[in-house]
Every structure is written in C-alpha cells, then in structure tokens.
Amino acid sequence: MKTIAIGSFFVLFALVASVATTAPAAFADHATASVSIPVGTSVPGCEETNECYVPAEVTVDAGGEVTWSNDDTAAHTVTSGTPADADSVGALFDSGLLLAGSTYSWKFEEVGTVDYFCIVHPWMQGVVVVQEAMAEEEEHMEEEEHMEHMDDEGHLITDASATGMLSDGTEVKIWTSEPMTGERMEVHVEFVDAEHVNHDITVTQNGEVVMDDTGAHHHGGSGMHETAPLSSDDPVDITVTFQGFGINAPFDGPVGEEVVFTNVVPEFGTIAMMILAVSIISIIAISAKTRVIPRL
Ligand SMILES: [Cu+2]
Predict the structure, then answer these.
(1) Which end of the chain is more exposed for a tag (fewer CB within 10 A), N or C?
(2) Are 219 and 258 spatial neighbours (Cβ–Cβ below 8 Å)?
C-alpha cells in the first residue's frame, strides 16, 4: 500500500512538473518592457552614453506596456515628444512628476517610434519602438527553434554554453540564448543523468540581478528559466546552487554547492570561465567519482 501511495504521488508530481515545464512561456515576449531612470540623471552627463533612461530604446508589440521606474533620488518625468518640438510635448502621454521610487506605465497601441524625454531634465531622452504584434505562426517557429536545443525530455542536444561539475561528479550544463537589450534571456540547466534535482539559480548582468529563482525542482534533471528583460547586450554571470536530489527533504547530494558560470557569451560557444565553489555545508567527503543515486 505504501509503495502504491508513493508511486502515485510520484506520477502526480511528474505530471504537474511536466505541465509546468512545457507550458509555453511566451518565448518572444514583447508584451511588456521595463525602463529604469538611474541615479544621477538629474545632472547632465548621462546623455553622453545614452543612459538617462536604461535601456534608452525598448521594443514592444502594439498593445504592449512599458513601465518606467524612477530609481533616482530626484523627481523626473516621462513625457512623449522631444524638447525641440513644442507641439509634440505630452501629445501622447505624460507621467507628470515621478517621485523617487515610483513607477509609471503606458500602453502603446499604434505601431511606430515614440520619442520621450524628461521635462525637468531635457537631456534625458528615450525611444519606444512599437512593432506589429508577432503573428502566431512566427511565434510557433521561434518556439520550435527554441526546442531544437532540447530533446523530448528537455535534455540539451546542442553544445552547452558551459559545463561545470558538482563534487559528486554530476555534470551541470547550461545553455543560454543571446543576451539582448529589452529581451528576456533563456537559461536551460541540465544536471546530466540526474533526477529530481532541486536548485536555485541566479543570473546577474553588470552586477544587476536579472533572475533569482529559488527552490526550482526539475524531475528530469533539466529545466528552462527566463530572466527579466535585459538592459544591455553584455554577457551575464550565472550561479547555480545545488539544493539536493529528491522530492521530500532531507535531500541527498552535495547540498549548497555552487557552480558559477561567469561571462557567459553564447555566441562564442563554450566556457569563458568556470569556478567551482564548494560551500561549508558540503564538506561531506564524497569522492569525486561517486555517483549519487537519486532517492525517490
Ligand atoms: Cu529628469
């Protein structure tokens, strides 16, 4: 009886997990975009590097929404138009004074390019490109393209962007899409030949956290994660923290070990650099060759 109970629990779990992992997270997501108003923009200078709004240009589908957050200590505005053309100022939208720490959103209905700026600090300028919402077919194609990196079970079949290893010999592979401004980046993680893997994963770009998933569970040992829309094309750093094999705690394996992938640049293929940091928790002496048999 007990075996049956555990067995059906497992099936149910596997079912739920597979539904969760195959649900098509809009792979080409242009429904929303986020723009930050960084610290220090109330004095001129940010326009020299086009960083008064970050990113200075974002793309959304028609009907998509852009959200600006004022991360500066001064108040700013997000006002459509350009300072040079008085008639254009605020013709489409105007946030009014956006106090420090507040946000403003606007939904863009029409295809085209919309300039905007800050009335208080007119050197602050940005652009929103509104594009035709992608036809469903195209989206499917992108989805298939995306699936080409994995087999039916979600295991990587193309070259991994980088590979690391836990102290028990379990290989950890990652594959990422290219980091692109305004786009979400996909990160596939695979613990090779492992089942019921629990892990955390953090992605940073130029020191900014763009993804922080804790408590991920991949019943087949692999899964896909997605970052927030990126604010630059720069490479990212990925930290995978292993949290053990198993469905119910206590979990097996070198819990707490981190595999850190720095400077991940997918177009250059393989590893830029890989560091294995072993935390104190995992000084359970397991020989590097020992395979940990996942316990159900
Ligand atoms: Cu301003």
Answers:
(1) N
(2) no
Instruction: Show me where the domains of the chain are located.
Output: 32-131, 150-282
Binned average pLDDT, 10 residues per bin, the chain of 296 residues:
38 34 46 95 95 95 95 96 93 96 96 95 96 64 54 60 83 84 88 89 92 85 88 88 86 87 57 31 32 43
Residue corresponding to tokens 């995978």: 240
Q: Which helix (H) or strand (E) holds 270?
A: none
Question: Cα(217) to centroid of ligand 1, in Å?
Answer: 43
CA atoms lying within 13 Å on the CB side of residue 241: 13
pLDDT digits (tens, 9 = 90+) for 78-134: 999 999 999 999 999 999 999 999 999 999 999 999 999 999 999 999 999 999 886
Give the DSSP per-residue string, 80-135.
ES-TT-GGGTTSS-B---B-TT-EEEEEE-SSEEEEEE-SSSTT-EEEEEEEPPPP
* Class of 32-131 in CATH: mainly beta
CA of 46 to the centre of ligand 1 (A): 11
Run of H or E including 132 = none
Cα 133 to middle of ligand 1, angstroms: 31
How many Å apart are CA 273 and CA 276, to the nearest integer? Answer: 10
Cα 103 to ligand 1 centroid, rounded to whole Å: 13
Which residue in the block uniquely carries the two structure tokens 């990422």? 176
Give the single-character DSSP code of 13. Answer: H
- Please report, as a single letter, which amino acid is at residue 39: V
Helix (H) or strand (E) holding 217: strand 208-218
Q: How far is the CA of 145 from the centre of ligand 1 (A)?
A: 41
Q: Which of 46, 111, 123, 52 is nearest to 82 (CA)?
A: 123
The fourth-level CATH superfamily of domain 150-282 is Macroglobulin (MG2) domain (2.60.40.1930)
Centroid of ligand 1 to alpha carbon of 179 (angstroms): 28
